[in-house]
Write a sequence for this structure.
């Protein structure tokens, strides 16, 4: 038996203190680390650029600058959306980077902790994606407004995907599976619906054709339409976060009331 400043401590108290300290260390190690994710993101974007150059110009790096890199820029937007809407959730929900270790003795990380992790990921991924698209802008001859719309469109959709990711992150396998299914459904649902109803135009409810159109040559009126589409996507994503956070707060309030 040891003696502390507040008196003697029993072996049971010492064991509980050690277990609590070890659990805290494991939780810190279980937090999803952003470094590995950003490395994968850089590799994805670099590989996408090299692949697009090879596919479109027959060279890994064009020896003579083509007249316009706009076609390549559009494909980079598509690859960026694939990474943000499907690749990012897949990496996190499969436990890569320590997310699985965040479950300690069946205790899940709180909604607020998961929200912080997801928003941190979202910020860093979109900053790097914006840097890539801004560098592509000069060869693609995008205007400043067009570049801002393309970057904002990708950021708005990935923000919405983050809600499903935060819901599944650190949860049991079944919930993570449903979360990944939701991410794929949100990313591809609009396109599937467009094919079913035979809509040949661009819909604000799906990211792919709209992103492709925003990165193309702009006909008259595209700016007005583009800002409207991005505004809708941003409002829906923000509303989903508010609704999910309100539901989490309600559950926390009920649990607190039940304890009292």
């Amino acid at each position: 038996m040891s003696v502390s400043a507040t008196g003697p401590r029993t072996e049971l108290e010492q064991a509980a203190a050690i277990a609590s300290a070890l659990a805290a260390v494991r939780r810190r190690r279980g937090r999803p680390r952003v470094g590995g994710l950003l490395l994968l993101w850089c590799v994805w974007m670099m590989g996408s650029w090299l692949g697009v150059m090879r596919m479109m110009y027959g060279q890994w790096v064009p020896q003579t600058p083509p007249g316009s890199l706009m076609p390549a820029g559009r494909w980079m937007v598509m690859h960026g959306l694939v990474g943000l809407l499907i690749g990012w959730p897949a990496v996190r929900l499969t436990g890569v980077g320590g997310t699985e270790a965040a479950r300690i003795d069946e205790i899940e990380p709180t909604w607020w902790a998961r929200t912080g992790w997801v928003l941190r990921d979202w910020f860093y991924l979109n900053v790097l994606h914006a840097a890539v698209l801004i560098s592509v802008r000069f060869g693609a001859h995008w205007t400043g407004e067009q570049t801002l719309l393309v970057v904002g469109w990708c950021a708005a959709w990935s923000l919405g995907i983050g809600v499903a990711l935060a819901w599944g992150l650190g949860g049991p396998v079944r919930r993570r599976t449903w979360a990944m299914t939701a991410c794929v459904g949100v990313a591809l649902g609009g396109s599937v619906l467009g094919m079913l109803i035979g809509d040949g135009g661009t819909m604000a409810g799906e990211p792919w054709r709209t992103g492709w159109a925003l990165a193309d040559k702009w006909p008259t009126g595209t700016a007005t339409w583009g800002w409207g589409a991005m505004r809708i996507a941003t409002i829906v994503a923000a509303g989903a976060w508010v609704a999910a956070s309100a539901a989490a707060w309600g559950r926390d309030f009920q649990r607190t009331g039940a304890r009292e």
In short: Strands lie at 2-4, 7-9.
